[in-house]
Amino acid sequence: MIDVYIINLTAVGIFGMILSAVFCDIRWTWKKNVVLIGALALILVFQGIIYFRVDPDLVESIYPLITHIPLIGVLCVLSGEYLWPIIAVLTAYLCCQLRRWLALLITAVFSGGFVMQNTAELILTLPILLIIVYLVAPSVRSISHYPVSVKCQFGMVPALYYGFDYLTRIYTSLLQEGRLVAIEFMPFVCSVAYLIFVTYTSAEGRIRNQLERTQDILNLQVEQAAREIRALRESQEKTSLYRHDMRHHMQYLSSCIEDGRLKQAQEYIRKIYREIETNKVAVFCKNEAANLIFSAFAKRAEDCGILMQVEAAISQPVAVDESDLCVLLSNALENALHACQKQREKGQPGVIEVTVYEKGERLFLQIINSCSEEIAFDHGIPVTSSPGHGIGVRSICAIVERYDGIYSFSEKDKQFILRISL
Fold this sequence. Notes:
Layout: H1 2-22, H2 30-54, H3 56-61, H4 63-79, H5 84-109, H6 114-143, H7 148-170, H8 180-183, H9 185-244, H10 246-258, H11 262-278, H12 288-303, E1 307-313, H13 322-345, E2 351-359, E3 362-370, E4 376-378, E5 381-383, H14 391-402, E6 406-412, E7 415-421
Parallel strand pairs: 1-2
Antiparallel strand pairs: 2-3, 3-7, 4-5, 6-7
């Protein structure tokens, strides 16, 4: 009877220590394996010395001191982490309850006793260990990379169970005495944990849905920018073809003049002029993508009666990815144009001033636009309650942060100022 009990105590100790190690995200080498095996062996030997030479009951009372704390120290050294090894050990301790409860169930079904319970625990140890190691441990390890707040939420239930088990079963007899406060504590913990889980999952779901909607809108913006660039490139190609075909046009006009068909010649000139003006792409800088964006928005601003001035010195190519540059400029100019359109609706002038240049490997951008409306800022970023708006600003911030750049939004003298360095 005693032999089975001792073997079971050793098995549960090995079970918990192995789980504690596999719950930690450690890059295992042969040296780390040797250190872990040596540490586990020393802990078991120390337990055996106290059990056989001092007092068997003392082992359970000081188990945290002779097992858990040394194990946490070893795992901290092997993983380079400080918080997660504590959570890993507490989680492993909670998992030990699986084999114990299943063994109690088997014992109750077959009306067994002490020997059957310990035997059942021994038999269940290896299957449960393998299931947890291969199916559960990878998910547990992944949580070690989450923020500290998430780690603490994950470790809350194991920590509460650990304290509950020692306070009500080992250091006191509250659970055996049937105290209701002890019996109802873990159901209370389960209820609180469930409510926290539901609240957290719901919040995460809302954030995820919002991010998905934002991503969809940004994808549409990228597609729209790509379509505008393709259209402008086609216009540029048509203009180049007109220039190339100018010789043929001149020959036709010459023949019309020689034949006295002056009205026909004038009409032909007006037709060619209209087509060239329609497909004209202004030249603002050497960078083709930026030039096409500036040209498109300059045309839109002109159609709305808004003055847009551009001073650009961007090379081809530029350090920023072309798609990111297009989305960045499109969103910034779209916001500026939208603000100036509101100005025009109030009968006030709308002006957009764009300055962009390169210095070293960095790109500097400044856009100033007329804005008489009061703008709300949250931590230096303009915010709005209007549905569908504010996405462009978030897109600008995300692109700048991706390049470890700097952005600033400000308002001064009825002008909105955007400055970017990336």
